[in-house]
């Protein structure tokens, strides 16, 4: 059980649209209680889940116990200038209800572009249809906008009379994310392993925080109903198959793995095999995280020297700390400067340097940065209104240096695609393409 009713209100709690699925909740009173909660509860005390007793009085969490509370449970989310709320009298799964609301909001965004009060008022008819199809008697149904579009159409696109009573095949199919009968002239699939490095380095060179956020992205152009099997150098998979010793030093222990719904989770939990029937087109197969120590791929240090006569000089040194056969593309080193410098002059051993007064920063751009290289850049500025000893001026250049980059054919974690098998009953030959990309995430180095 997820919800007895779902309704959408504006920021003041005024109801815009609603759907009562079970009829066991007095909807008008429920909206009044929700509005009262919004108006009477201070912002810092508001929570996405709250409760009322049988008399409609608000309950504290410590007062809620047992298998039921005898009143109502409200679960809501805030979206732009709207609230979307689900209410139930049952002891429902709150996480599932929140997930349903967020997925429903995404469906609305897919249909209307933006989800705001105006878009709700302009699309009442379609919203009622979507509310009816995404939940049935309080139970969630299909929340895939691609499937919903096949039978809930907008504008002049209407279904033929003889098909309106028939549910789309995808809804009754075990593989709801993929339609049957897909055909492509050329069968191929593209797989990108993309890792973003979050890094914070102290002024003395100590790595304070390092984290890898990875994603396995796919673009599938395969005919029929193919079965795919993906093998990674996953440490737990090697251990499960008794090959831990031979994989020592070549395996990766992934954390916080999240899969697309097409992956057979039971199979993965059993032997770490990633087996799935892919959706057609582009999707994220999985995401993962590694909270591990990583040395800076691109090291930057800056020496700032204020001079008498209202001048300031920067000497910036950068070093690429990855293998020489790899190349970082479109590197940007963003160095903060005081807000009112003038008369900029630059000298660099490579790349171009630009002063951006609107961002109070200097950007050093290096189009291609090979591994194992070191470069220098000097920048001179005038400080017309600030003396060299002004503390405020000094603080303004203490913000961290930020670095942006992209390194193809390289992963920080060392993750590798060992195989990608494609099996389809017609026996066609498909071409798999695999790429690796490492890019910056929140990558910052503090200045001395």
UniProtKB/TrEMBL annotation:
Alphabetically, which GO biological process terms does the record hold? intracellular protein transport; vesicle-mediated transport
MHD domain: residues covered = 186-446
Q: Which Gene3D superfamilies match?
A: 3.30.450.60, Mu homology domain, subdomain B
- Source superkingdom: Eukaryota
* Cellular compartments annotated: Endomembrane system
InterPro entries per record: Adaptor_comp_med_subunit (IPR050431), AP2_Mu_C_sf (IPR036168), AP_mu_sigma_su (IPR022775), Clathrin_mu (IPR001392), Clathrin_mu_CS (IPR018240), Longin-like_dom_sf (IPR011012), MHD (IPR028565)
List GO terms (cellular component aspect).
clathrin adaptor complex; endomembrane system
Q: Which UniProt keywords apply?
A: Membrane, Protein transport, Transport
- Family membership noted in the UniProt record: Belongs to the adaptor complexes medium subunit family.
Mind telling me what this protein is named? AP-1 complex subunit mu
Q: State the organism of origin.
A: Fistulifera solaris (Oleaginous diatom)
Phylogenetic lineage: Eukaryota, Sar, Stramenopiles, Ochrophyta, Bacillariophyta
